[in-house]
């Protein structure tokens, strides 16, 4: 079993140069960073606060559900792709282009 330092050492083997050798890998890694740091941890954006997300398997695809609150209204957005990384990339692109389709969260009562 690894301790934290051993784990970090193995992760350091993945260098920036390695990541930049493959444009698809670079795009995916930047998408993950943007999703988790630029969207999930950012705080309110245009009065919308992202409050969580979940991934689930749907047959051979992955479903990403992103939860948010706009004002006092709980909402969700859905993205389906083959892999979780595809969901993150697609959602990030929609976010940047202001094309996320938000729906009322029918599982939250106000």
Compile the SSE list and pairings.
Elements: H1 4-12, H2 16-20, H3 23-39, E1 48-58, E2 61-70, E3 73-81, H4 84-96, E4 103-104
Antiparallel strand pairs: 1-2, 2-3, 3-4
What count of domains describes the coordinates?
1
Could you give the count of β-strands? 4
CATH class: Alpha Beta
Flag low-confidence runs. Answer: none
User: What value does the average pLDDT take?
Assistant: 90
Number of helices: 4
Strand content: 25-35%
Distance between the termini: 45 Å
Helix-strand pattern, N to C?
HHHEEEHE
Rg on CA atoms, Å: 16 Å
List the defining traits of the structure above.
4-stranded antiparallel sheet, 110 residues, 29% strand, alpha+beta, Double Stranded RNA Binding Domain
Task: Provide a descriptive summary of the structure in words.
With 110 residues, the chain is α+β, with helices and mostly antiparallel strands. It has one domain (4-104): Double Stranded RNA Binding Domain (2-Layer Sandwich). Helix content is 40%, strand content 29%. The chain has a 4-stranded antiparallel beta sheet. Strand 1 and strand 2 form a beta hairpin. Helix 3 packs across helix 4. It is elongated and about 45 Å long.
Sum this structure up briefly:
The chain has helices at residues 4-12, 16-20, 23-39, 84-96; strands at residues 48-58, 61-70, 73-81, 103-104. It is of the alpha+beta class.
């Amino acid at each position: 079993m690894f301790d934290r330092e051993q784990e970090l050492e193995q992760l350091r083997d993945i260098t920036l140069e390695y990541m930049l050798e493959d444009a698809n890998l670079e795009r995916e890694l930047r998408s993950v960073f943007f999703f988790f740091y630029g969207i999930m941890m950012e705080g309110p954006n245009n009065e919308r606060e992202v409050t969580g997300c979940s991934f689930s398997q749907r047959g051979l695809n992955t479903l990403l559900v992103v939860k948010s609150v706009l004002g006092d209204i709980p909402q969700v957005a859905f993205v389906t792709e083959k892999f979780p990384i595809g969901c993150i990339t697609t959602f990030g692109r929609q976010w940047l282009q202001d094309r996320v389709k938000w729906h009322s969260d029918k599982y939250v009562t106000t």
